Amino acid sequence: MSQQSLEQRFQGLPATVRQKVDAVIDDAKVALKVRVGELLADKDEVAEHAVTTAGRVGAKSGEVSELTAIMPLKPGGAERLRKFFKLVDGNLAGAGDVGTLHNMRFVFLDGDTKLLFATAYDGEWDPYIDDFATKIPEMMDHLFGNVEGWPGIHSPEVKDFIVQYQLPAEAWFVAHPNLTVAGATRLKRLDRTVQSFLTELN
Amino acid sequence: MDLFRRLTRRPTLELDDIQAAVLRSRPEPYYGTHAILEITDAALGRELLRRLSPRITSAARWDEPVPAWTMLAISYPGLVALGVPESSLASFPANFRAGMAARAERLRDTGPNAPEHWEFPFGTGRAHLAISVYADSEQAWQAAVEGYARELDQVPGVRLLSHQDFGATGFNVFGYRDGFAQPAVEGSGAETMPGDGRPIRPGEFVLGYPSETGQPLPMPSPDVLGRNGTFVVFRKYHSHVAAFNRFLHDHAGTPQERDLLGAKLVGRWRSGAPLALSPDRDDPAIGDDPTRLNDFTYSGDPRGLRTPLGAHTRRMNPRDAKLAILTDTRIRRIIRRGTSYGDPVAEDVTRDDGKSRGLDFIAISARAVDTVEFLQSEWVNSGNFVGLDKEKDPLISRQDDGARFTVPGTPPRRVQGIQSFNTLLGGEYFFMPSLSAIAWLSREPST
């Protein structure tokens, strides 16, 4: 698209949007300004993906929250964790039982001295910590026991411990902000039903 | 009728130090009062505790009928007003210290349920002490109320802020039997009733004993303050019974259909008989039989064809139902000492008479504050935990415009336009100290 027609599209946006864009990224190419401006002007899209807070730390979009934490590892901690992850081929399939986890990852940083733990999950993170403490305490302590100072999943300090290493995301996007893991499971079941109905129909 | 447990084993809990409310069942019929007090002078507040302490009933022989019993609980501002040392204050959980009003967002107490609409003295920080009297007769009730009122009169520096009477037959203002499904507490000496399963570890309900984690839960310090104590969550609701009846009339044509729709919302019929045992019609023989009315599970009804996944009693106590989220339902049990106030409304009345009526939700547990915050956000004001997305509890949630309720079946039925049938009038988080902790609190702090 020509520079001129891009300029026209930008001028076609509401004045308030243009002012906002110009105030922050005046130096950007007009193509980018048009993209950002059109995004901001789409109120429904913006509202659906609105970013709120997930309890104490972290961003939330619709029902889906993010948690990013960088935690110091005990000496040999990375090695022990790596052995465990190798044992399961990096496959944490059983984590699906938690029912709120969209995804999670474990990454070693700074020469295996730190652990980056990042996850997307439904709701707020702390209502279910007590459930982890009675349902899967061994798993929690095995994974996070390699972190320096881990107080143990039964400790009353465990929530504060996690929070202190949590880094809130500055920006957060979720494709389907109101689709929880449980909701996706339901949609999959519905789809299976519809598909088998269609198959039997013909 | 005797719906309640008997003491048949040797108790291992220190029952004579634990307050009666933890184990003593609400009589039927019952009469009583919830009074809320403000302490304006620490020394006089301690003086009042000294005077009241002989009147606070212990849980010893909790199964033997007594004409009346009195319980006492203290909010965080109340502990501050009593001059409790900072080191003890800091040992209470953060959400308890913040108080219910400050936790409105987590509790989903928004819109008409928000603290700015609450009745006095809830949420003002002045509700320091709660005294409740439960009695089995009007005379015993009045005698107990006069008893503590006499002590109050003797002590300046303590103000009575509110005084709410309650009483009912065991059926709430909607006409449903309530308050009878209670957890079996290990070590209480209680007989096991059919449907109980393994009793819950005592530390879930009383501080200082092993909980479901195997360890005691963290408790306030020093030990004399924490041990044998517990937490109480109080929430007062106004009930819109005419609106509930109208909803049933609008969506069901015959009395039988209305009864069934009501049961689908509640999970039980008016007699207390659960849909799980009597799916098609009420069966008062079950409702009247303590060995039968809790003797059921949900695992055989995964789709909710008998008891809808979203029915109130199934949400609040999912028993063995498979949930969409990893949950330990054993740590979410609460001892319920809720009370009804105001006249019940007959099922055919669909016009509001504007009178004050409703229920005081009273939950006791060593993690009562965490549990009620969990219940409010996860099980009451969401349906995600049973795969119902944004559908909410049909009785005690705050419903959005255009809310609905799904009755599973072939075909399922979607009932539109469900409203909030209970509005929160206020509430507080309290600590219920042991009898020795009351004695400790009534002495001048040494530091």
Compact summary:
The complex is a heterodimer of chains A (202) and B (447). With 202 residues, chain A is α+β, with helices and mostly antiparallel strands.
Description:
The complex is a heterodimer of chains A (202) and B (447). Helices cover 46% and strands 16% of the residues of chain A. Chain A folds into two domains: 1-41, no CATH class; 51-165, Alpha-Beta Plaits (2-Layer Sandwich). The N and C termini of chain A lie far apart (47 Å). Chain A has 202 residues and is α+β, with helices and mostly antiparallel strands. Chain A has helices at 3-11, 15-25, 30-41, 43-48, 77-87, 129-135, 137-144, 158-165, 181-201; strands at 51-53, 59-61, 64-72, 101-109, 114-122. In chain B, helix 1 packs antiparallel against helix 13 (435-442). The longest helix of chain B has 17 residues, at 138-154. In chain B, strands 5, 6, 7, 8 and 11 form a five-stranded antiparallel β-sheet that branches. In chain B, strands 2-3-1-4 form a four-stranded antiparallel β-sheet. Chain B is built from 13 helices and eleven strands. The chains are: A alpha+beta (202), B alpha+beta (447). Chain A binds chain B through residues 55, 63, 97-100, 122-124, 127-128, 130-137, 154, 156, 180-183, 185-186, and chain B through 93, 106, 212-213, 215, 217-218, 323-328, 330-331, 367, 370, 373-374, 377-378, 382, 384-385, 387, 389.
